[in-house]
Amino acid sequence: MTSPASSFDPAQLAAAVRRGERPALAQALNLLDDRREGSRRQAADFLRQLEAGQPGDSGHLIGMTGPPGAGKSSLTAALITVWRQRGLRVGVLAVDPSSPISGGALLGDRLRMKTSADDDGVFIRSLACRGEFGGLSAEVWPMSLVMLAASDLVIIETVGVGQREIDISRMCDTTCFVAQPGSGDSVQFLKAGILEVPHVLVVNKEDMGAVARRTLSELGTALGRAHTDGNWEVPVLSASATAGTGVEALADTLALHGKALRDSKCLHERRRQYRAQWLLKRLQEEFGSHGIKRLGGEPDLLRQLAEQNLSLFEQHEALRQRLLGAAAGDSNSTINF
Amino acid sequence: MTSPASSFDPAQLAAAVRRGERPALAQALNLLDDRREGSRRQAADFLRQLEAGQPGDSGHLIGMTGPPGAGKSSLTAALITVWRQRGLRVGVLAVDPSSPISGGALLGDRLRMKTSADDDGVFIRSLACRGEFGGLSAEVWPMSLVMLAASDLVIIETVGVGQREIDISRMCDTTCFVAQPGSGDSVQFLKAGILEVPHVLVVNKEDMGAVARRTLSELGTALGRAHTDGNWEVPVLSASATAGTGVEALADTLALHGKALRDSKCLHERRRQYRAQWLLKRLQEEFGSHGIKRLGGEPDLLRQLAEQNLSLFEQHEALRQRLLGAAAGDSNSTINF
Predict the structure, then answer these.
(1) A287, B291: Cβ pair inside 8 Å?
(2) Chain B closest CA to A130's CA: distance in Å?
(3) Which of A68, A286, A287 sits opposite B188 (nearest CB)?
(4) Dihedral, CA of residue B259, residue B263, residue B265 and residue B269, to nearest 10
(5) How far apart, in whole angstroms, are the C-alpha atoms of residue B14 and residue A293?
């Protein structure tokens, strides 16, 4: 057990998170979510400890996207069952406002049916009420770091159509798009280049029969032989969360993409770049394009951000202070991430 | 004819735009699009002249949104034919990357078939290559002001699903969503609150029969008896751009919403607020939330912006200068809108 928070020990909390202790994980995520100044300092201390002891390519961060109603949550629940059978620990960050996970107890109930209520190997966190819909909130990236430290697999569930912000395809190792049978919009979005080509595409509800098969074939045609990550040919799979078919194969394919990234030594580099983009985005939100220009411009800044070895929040704070100027004691220079 | 641009006369250009002269309209839109400093000053002068002579509630600004493939462009073309028969002048700003208008000659060809090639009453401008997809580019608002000065109706065509930026529903008087028969995604997006409720909803391709009727009924159910603008009950219409059915009724409904806005004296106020939001957004992009805080915070700033009587670019420039500080001669304080 961790000690009570009265005497906060960031190193101890980081160690407990890495051991996958649920109370520690909950405490850490709450801390990252707490915007009071004292908590922000504690969060910075904690994240420094966590990042120091964590290899840059641990775990597998998977994004599940797709329109509401396609069954992302059911499919995630079915995948979790498979992963648990394989002995993997799973974290879920749900950021889809229409998701039964974020929306309430629905997936929680479904999960409880399938996995034991005291299964320490599954941890679910909803971010439903953060910020505006769709665009991933600023907390998602640091929270995913915490979940990666505690789990083998982390799933981020979101809508993911037409987002311009840090979207899921710019923060996950593997993006999986869940399509709804009979819905032409996904095909059209793909064709129009509005939907970024995912790493894995799956048509859910294959138990619907002909309409699911037609969507499968339309998506295959729309994609052609699309490649991402150099030579990864995007597979189009078929599954049914409710019937439980195709889920093992989907889990295998997701793992295969993760392995391909790791084998080609791309994973560590990709995460560094995503981290740099998160920092850039935070600074842009607070200081605009003028602020980014003052820090040397976007390409230069991204290069600097990817090279530095400070922890996430320290790096953010150092750059904030450069923009806020030398007036170290004024009211604007409090930690604000 | 306007005089050649060598001796630029902003008042003359504004007058020629208001008379609906095509070369003047083209010149004005090019000017707003030109990021060189000399052009920016000319654009500011021109827009001041234009705004000074233009009532705040002239014309009708209509947004056509919907997924790619739903037939927004064909429906727009069919509407234009109806409007031209009614003697109305029409401007089109196309910002959908998948649109045949932005994409090239397709709608241009279709339009040429239906309207005379030397019909001065239709003016089309594509913004396909501005900025990132979907999110309306910064130029759309000033360009729509220019088009409103020259036309009775201005159509902005965009994808409009899941955009967080100044989206079309925050700049048009009337938003019309074009749905694709058989596509459940639109229904799901509406239900999930991801798609903002439009003022008018139309299912295109009613010639597809049963599948179009089912979508019509699903959308009706998803909307319930949704209201916008206080007591405007959102109508769900059916049309076919190719068969030419339902287009007159759609034109009537759009006009009815415009009339309701004008009758309730909301139009002028709404445009002032949209203008203020455009300014806020521009300042946010350049100076971030920190800059907005320095100008007094968003609610206060929006109030100020809606009250002032400077022209659009002058107001923008005055606020930029306040944020850039007193160093009036330095390299950062050039006009930059």
Answers:
(1) yes
(2) 14
(3) A68
(4) -10
(5) 35
**What gap in Å lies between CA B77 and CA B124, rounded to an integer?**
11
Instruction: Write out pLDDT tens, residues B107-137.
Output: 444 444 344 445 678 888 877 544 443 345 6
Contacts of A189 (CB under 8 A, 6+ apart): A161, A162, A195, B67, B68
* Nearest residue, CB atoms, B286 vs list A97, A182, A288: A288
Each residue of A255-285: pLDDT tens digit?
A: 999 999 999 888 888 888 888 988 998 898 8
Q: Is residue A96 within 8 Å of A102, Cβ to Cβ?
A: yes
Q: What is the ipTM of this complex?
A: 0.76
Q: Which residues of A touch B98 (CB under 8 A)?
A: 188, 191-194
Out of A8-12, A86-90, A93-97, pick the least confident: A93-97
Q: What is the average pLDDT across A187-204?
A: 78
Q: Single out the residue of A80, A96, A98 nearest to residue A88, CA to CA.
A: A80
Q: Which residues contact B146 (CB under 8 A, 6 or more apart)?
A: B17, B25, B28, B29, B32, B50
Helix, strand, or coil (residue B222): helix
- Please report the pLDDT score of residue A176 as a whole number: 93
Mean pLDDT (chain B, rounded): 80
- Asked if B291 and A289 come within 8 Å (Cβ–Cβ), the reply is no
Residue of A162, A182, A285 with shortest CB distance to B162: A162
- A70: closest CA of chain B, how far (Å): 9
Say if residue B106's pLDDT is above 70.
Answer: no
Q: Chain A partners of B193 at a C-beta cutoff of 8 Å?
A: 97-98, 133
Q: Please report the DSSP string for A228-276 in residue order.
A: ETTTEEPPEEE-BTTTTBSHHHHHHHHHHHHHHHHHTTHHHHHHHHHHH
How would you classify the pairing of strands B227-228 and B232-233? Answer: antiparallel
Q: Is A159's CB within 8 Å of B162's CB?
A: yes
- 3-class secondary-structure state, position B3: coil
Which one of B191, B290, B292, B295 makes the best mutation probe of the A interface by having the most chain A beta carbons within 10 Å? B290
